[in-house]
Amino acid sequence: MADKKLKLGVYWGASCGGCDISTLEIAEKILKVIEIADIVLWPCIADFKYDDVRKYPDGYIDVCLWNGGIRNSETREIAELLRKKSKVLVAYGACSSFGGIPSLANLYTKEDIFERAYKTTESTDNPDGIYPQTSYTVPEGELKLPEFYGSVYRLKDVVDVDYTMPGCPPTGKQTWNVIEAIATGKLPPKGSVVGVGDKTVCDECPFEKQTEGVRIERFKRPHLARPDLTPKTELKDKPQCLLEQGFVCVGSATRSGCEAQCLNANMPCRGCYGPAKDVDDQGAKAASAIGSLIDTKGDVKRGEEIAAQIVDPVGTFYRFGLANSVLRRKVPSPKEQT
User: Fold this and answer.
1) 333: how many CB neighbours lie within 10 A of its CB?
2) Cα 303 to Cα 294: distance, rounded to the nearest angstrom
């Protein structure tokens, strides 16, 4: 470990807060973090002020773990501030790396979202259709709110990012390995995806694929059907691949490193570690792999009917990475400038 204590920052953008909690999954190693680092920013656990951060010298923070996407002008402003104040900026978790679940909002325009949030939700009482304003004057002065953007962006869409650490959230093992690498100066080349593997989740999976001849006649949903967990001699005494059993699993397109935690709980992979190495579009890759297994029997209409059993295709294949895909978002309305 370095003789001089590191200055560590942790910040959240458009996220659920799970990544902040995940940093505590390093368990007793949190005591090691205290030994090697001073926390100079972490809004989740203590009251830090933006003005205090602005007063830090440039490069003052040795490493900043940023989780969450960029949803509004505030998150963009702080991303730019922390890029300036940090020697190393890490996109921590699926939302900052790929847009995450928040970027599924890119299927809708800003107007769509405001209409739903402030007018038509079942619990909303807003007969005058009042929307939040970015600026409003009251006797005490001018009140300001951040501007809500028309899209959710990845961290690297707005600032330069040194490393990417995917996961929803990253595992404690990942987090510690990266902190240790930073503390010891044993960092990989800038731009690397850290704390992960170079293969796919399929390579870590406790289930086994058949070699040939498998075709899917119908798709099942995990809350409505149970997988067959019977070990089979012809499959190395492992149960059969969940995808081959008809459960939608995107492990073949997803980067390894999570130790197949979902699959070890008998749940299919949902893709939170992002595209596997050398995969450009995770969703397209997964859809292609799954489509090739559909039992069309040479009938296009039959194939379409089976594929239609996949509920919410975009949410299935781009659950954690719509902002990272070729699609990126729904075409914005002419009113949207951001």
Assistant:
1) 11
2) 6
pLDDT digits (tens, 9 = 90+) for 191-218: 999 989 999 999 999 999 987 889 999 9
Integer Cα distance of 168 and 31 in angstroms = 24
CA distance 159 to 177: 24
- Cβ proximity of 195 and 26 under 8 Å: no
Domain shared by 92 and 227, yes or no:
no
Whether 319 and 212 share a structural domain: yes
For 14, phi then psi, to 5°, come to -80, 95
Look-up of token digits 């990253």: 170
| Three-state secondary-structure class, residue 152 | strand
Q: How many whole angstroms separate alpha carbon 178 and alpha carbon 157?
A: 23
**pLDDT score of 3:** 57
Q: What pLDDT does 24 receive?
A: 81
**C-alpha–C-alpha distance, residues 35 and 153, integer Å:** 35
Tell me, what's the pLDDT at 314?
95
Do 16 and 50 lie in one domain? The reply is yes
First vs last C-alpha separation in the chain? 44
Residue owning tokens 């996220």:
15
Helix (H/G/I), strand (E/B), else coil: 288: helix
Burial of 214 (0-12, 13-18, 19+ CB in 10 A): middle
The single-letter code of the amino acid at 87 is: K
Q: What's the pTM value of the predicted model, to 2 decimals?
A: 0.91
Structural domain including 131 reads 109-149
Please tell me the distance from the alpha carbon of residue 60 to that of residue 63, in angstroms, as a whole number: 9
Distance of CA 189 to the CA centre of its chain: 22
- Judge if 212 and 243 occupy the same domain: yes
